[in-house]
């Protein structure tokens, strides 16, 4: 059965990879950013794209029976987190940076699920919904002020002109970068902790953890590159010098989401509980464990018992591992932030990524995966045609054939139900005569 659990789990994972924009089925998400910004804030930050991650979390009891499937999930998640983050470094349009950031953050959630930390994944899903919706709506506010220009190199100096947008956007950026004490710090730290303590002896999981860790400074770098280019320095266009005013129907939601980006981490402060021994502050764990009437079938203790991993602490036991892991993660995030400040937090920044030469072209063109997919589509056209014939002729043919036989038989039998009483009486008489004849022959009545 273990083999079948793995096969089924990986087949379901194929749908999850497409739905939650994981490598290699992630290329649709940046193109979807052409839609209105409020739609991006709702659909891409919190609902539709999250459905794949949520499905694996709901099915974690099933996936826990297949260590191989979990390891693959963790590796794909860690790789996607780093892979998408590298592309965000060179993007010039505001919403494009956020698009690749979204792909990367869903990669972190997949890493958590593969590492056995499904509560950590749900936690990051929750915090991400708030701070990413905030960033999308903040980007929309900037785009309105810039007369729908999304190019960050035409911005600059908007901090003083859009103060509400700036400070709320800054809160979302700090949460995205995983800076203490913003919400993203707590959820991302728990993901990396789960991957760290379960990684020893699991090569794919360990690889996923390392890639997730490397994505931390890259995330902080592209996030604050975006902040500095948009809001700091000197205005680099006439529109930036005299932006359009933004009304309170735009700024109001930013204020609410900005507050949530700061405080949402308190719903699951597991590191504080482990270090200080304060009970009752792991609210999300308790809720998912049904202690407060939670969701049926999503019990953290039960699922934790099913998980294939054992925890191995690297230094100083559980508390030491928590502190070291958090310190490393925070240090890497601050390093990325500091590098972004050093390069782009100046009055007149220059495009330093141009110094990467051909590497920038590869990153800017998304590793040419769009072109690769188009090439593969043309090269596999004959195979796709044969598969279509098989699907319509065999698969659909069997299904449609069964339904056609049922309809044909039903139509023939329906003719017997004419509604004419005399016909019913005749049929009853014929049936009775036939029954008497059968009984007479088999019973020897006529001998």
From TrEMBL:
Record has Cytoplasm as a keyword: no
PANTHER family: NADH-UBIQUINONE OXIDOREDUCTASE CHAIN 5
KW Mitochondrion (keyword) present: no
One GO cellular component term: membrane
Membrane topology: Multi-pass membrane protein
Keywords: Membrane, Transmembrane, Transmembrane helix
Superkingdom, natural source: Archaea
Chain ranges passing through the membrane: 6-29, 41-63, 69-90, 97-123, 129-146, 166-186, 206-231, 319-341, 424-446
The protein, known as: NADH-quinone oxidoreductase subunit L
Localization annotation: Membrane
Domain spans labelled NADH:quinone oxidoreductase/Mrp antiporter transmembrane: 6-196
């Amino acid at each position: 059965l273990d083999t079948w659990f793995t096969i089924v789990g990986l087949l379901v994972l194929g749908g999850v990879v497409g739905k939650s924009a994981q490598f290699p089925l992630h290329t649709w998400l940046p193109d979807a950013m052409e839609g209105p910004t409020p739609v991006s804030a709702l659909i891409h930050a919190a609902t539709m794209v999250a459905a794949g991650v949520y499905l694996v979390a709901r099915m974690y009891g099933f996936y826990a029976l297949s260590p191989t499937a979990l390891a693959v999930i963790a590796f794909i998640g860690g790789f996607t987190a780093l892979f998408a983050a590298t592309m965000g470094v060179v993007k010039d349009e505001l919403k494009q940076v956020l698009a690749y950031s979204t792909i990367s953050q869903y990669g972190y959630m997949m890493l958590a699920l593969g590492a056995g930390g499904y509560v950590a994944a749900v936690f990051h899903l929750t915090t991400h919904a708030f701070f990413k919706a905030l960033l999308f709506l903040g980007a929309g506010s900037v785009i309105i002020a810039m007369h729908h220009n999304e190019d960050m190199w035409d911005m600059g100096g908007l901090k003083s002109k859009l103060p509400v947008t700036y400070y709320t956007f800054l809160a979302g950026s700090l949460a995205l970068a995983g800076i203490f004490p913003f919400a993203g710090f707590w959820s991302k730290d728990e993901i990396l902790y789960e991957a760290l303590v379960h990684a020893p002896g699991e090569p794919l999981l360990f690889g996923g953890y390392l890639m997730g860790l490397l994505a931390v400074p890259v995330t902080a770098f592209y996030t604050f590159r975006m902040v500095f280019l948009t809001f700091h320095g000197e205005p680099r266009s006439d529109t930036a010098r005299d932006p359009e005013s933004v009304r309170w129907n735009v700024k109001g939601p930013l204020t609410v989401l900005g507050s949530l980006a700061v405080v949402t981490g308190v719903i699951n402060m597991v590191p504080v509980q482990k270090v200080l021994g304060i009970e009752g502050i792991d609210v999300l764990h308790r809720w998912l464990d049904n202690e407060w009437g939670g969701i049926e079938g999503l019990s953290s203790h039960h699922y934790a018992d099913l998980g294939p991993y054992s925890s191995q602490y690297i230094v100083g036991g559980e508390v030491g591992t928590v502190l070291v892991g958090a310190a490393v993660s925070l240090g890497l995030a601050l390093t990325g932030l500091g590098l972004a400040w050093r390069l782009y937090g100046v009055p007149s920044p220059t495009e330093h990524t141009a110094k990467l030469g051909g590497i920038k072209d590869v990153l800017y063109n998304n590793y040419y995966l769009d072109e690769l997919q188009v090439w593969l589509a043309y090269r596999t056209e004959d195979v796709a045609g044969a598969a279509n014939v098989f699907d319509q002729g065999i698969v659909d043919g069997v299904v449609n054939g069964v339904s056609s036989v049922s309809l044909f038989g039903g139509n023939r039998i329906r003719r017997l139900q004419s509604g004419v009483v005399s016909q019913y009486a005749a049929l009853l008489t014929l049936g009775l005569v036939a029954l008497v004849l059968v009984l007479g022959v088999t019973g020897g009545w006529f001998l």
